[in-house]
């Protein structure tokens, strides 16, 4: 059975998905025996999107037979970076043959101080499980 193609389309946005993020760097990569290998690198357009990325995916027959022992999709990583925003990664994005996997990446802006929850523009509670606390200590909130 031959490898087929699937696709990833990335949208970089901010403000809970309300505003497209033009000029963000997007990298699509896969984990290989040589480490995380970048396959595509893009800069988002005025709508915050990348071009459609064609990627390898296993034969559709793999997903039609649960007894095949073969995975019916490939896994890729998507990382988005933009000045003034925290970088964001989505790991193990599944890509199925003949399907477009749409990845909306919602980036959060840096605060004036550059640290979440430490100035008048952000609340004192950090957006992490456990609520308020010192996230600078190893292990998260204390």
Mean pLDDT: 79
Q: CATH top level of the largest domain?
A: Mainly Beta
Count, helices: 1
Question: Between the first and last Cα atoms, what is the distance in angstroms?
Answer: 52 Å
Total individual domains: 2
Oligomer: single chain
Low-confidence stretches: 117-142
Helix and strand run: EEEEEHEEE
Task: Give the C-alpha Rg.
Answer: 19 Å
Tally of DSSP β-strands? 8
The assigned CATH architecture of the largest domain is Sandwich
Helix/sheet category: mainly beta
Q: What does the largest sheet look like?
A: 4 strands, mixed
The CATH topology of the largest domain comes to Immunoglobulin-like
Shape: elongated
Helix content: under 10%
Beta-strand content bin? 35-45%
Full CATH superfamily name of the largest domain = Immunoglobulins
In short:
The protein has 142 residues and is mostly beta strands. The protein is built from one helix and eight strands, in the order βββββαβββ. It folds into two domains: 103 residues, Immunoglobulin-like, CATH 2.60.40.10; 31 residues, no CATH class.
Task: Describe what you observe in this structure.
This protein is an all-beta fold and 142 residues long. The protein has two domains: 4-106, Immunoglobulin-like, CATH 2.60.40; 112-142, no CATH class. It is 3% helix and 41% strand. It has one helix and eight strands, in the order E-E-E-E-E-H-E-E-E. Strands 1, 2, 5 and 8 form a four-stranded mixed β-sheet that branches. The protein has a four-stranded antiparallel β-sheet with strand order 4-3-6-7, with no helix packed on it. The longest helix is centred in the middle third of the chain and has 4 residues, at 61-64.
